[in-house]
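Dear support,

Our group has been running a series of protein-ligand predictions, and this particular one with LLP is the one our PI (initials K.S.) wants archived with full inputs and outputs. We had some confusion internally about which version of the output was final, so please treat the block below as the authoritative record. The input we submitted was:
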Amino acid sequence: MSVTFATAPATAADGLGVWPSSARPAPGGDVTVAGVSLAEAADRFGTPLYVLDEGEVRDRCRAYRAAFPDADVVYAAKAFLCRAVSRWIEEEGLGLDVCSAGELGLATTAGFPAARIVLHGNAKSPDDLSTALRLGVGRIVLDSAPEIARLAGLVPDGDRQPVMVRVVPGIAAGGHAKIRTGTEDQKFGLSVTDGSAQHAIARVLARPRLELVGLHCHIGSQITSVKPYVAAVRRMVGLMTQVRDHHGLELPQLNIGGGHGIAYRPGEPVLGPAVLAARVRAELEDGCAHARLPVPRLTVEPGRALVGPAGVAVYRVLTVKETAGRTFVAVDGGMSDNPRPALYGARYAPRLIGRGSTAAPAVVTVVGRHCEAGDVLAEDVALPGDVRPGDLLAVPAAGAYQLSMASGYNLVGRPPVVAVRDGVVRLLVRRESLADLSSRDIGL
Ligand code: LLP
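Confirmed final output from the archive:
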């Protein structure tokens, strides 16, 4: 199931605890990932560079499928999507969660079977809905009352679209207020407490062109405890019982979303699939037995946990500046390729690579090159005291929600993505060039 390595897997002792498990220290202060030198890759493809360990992504998919053998494991494409990742996910037998016609179109043109795709979104556009119907996505998760009528109106005569209703279970969980989606005070889903979820279910059931196959909830992201999932399952089984009692319908599916936390820095907690699967299954089986409901088929939607730990971002240091008692190490990327520190106060653990150093560690702040004081990548981190322009810094756990949230700020161009596997590096997404940027800018 997992890849066999010639040497011991990365351990906390070599400082590579949150790196892809294929990462190894190499001579001259270099690090290899899947047998590929990061310093050489940086020289060949330039910096900033995003490196994705294909074996790590595949191993993580397999660990999920092994932990959830009777469930559908659906990758949340918003974490990071390109054609190659879509292919790996497809080959590993997972489904795909998309939230726009863009993600849907990219995946299907790369050959992803539409039947294994779930469409989400709190405000799907007419284009999202009609593209989903035209391509035949497996499930559409409805998120508001107007959307029910809108979708039903688009389904052709004689067809039935399988749908779910997104429910707010009323549970607070998640690594930051901006990524908590299980409570009433945010835009996603329909509330059980005020009855809008029950109302939406009744409306869906009144539409013959919509087939209600189950309920969905997604309580938040970067969650490191299993408890909120257990509580969410309990609430969802409660609502499924109400649906059975009021409508005589035993819903065959339950989707509990994603949100499983990863470690960005050594020592941080993670929520592994095995623990999650055991507790969720136990709660689901007990709850259903108690309510005398058949156990629904489960779906989980991990995004970050599949690709986050597989990615490493590599930057080159442009300047080092001492000011007011602080040392700012400025690199050639920043908030345009990783907005997470600015948005959520996310913390990372950068590492000097490509040369050895015996200098004592110094506390520095790694900043980006963008025209904004908030463009900070890693505040108060320890790096060798002699870090200088031209050095390479690598940031692990960079595979999720960085490039997928990249912006065009300051027109620096978005970085390329390379895949590494068995000592081979290959370009997946090329660097955004001035020609790319100016090709859209057609007025004068
Ligand atoms: N399912 C649904 C319906 C979602 O909205 C999401 C994420 C997922 C699954 C996958 O969640 P994951 O397993 O990746 O946590 N930009 C933020 C994270 C936003 C998550 C949005 N929804 C960040 O960088 O932390």
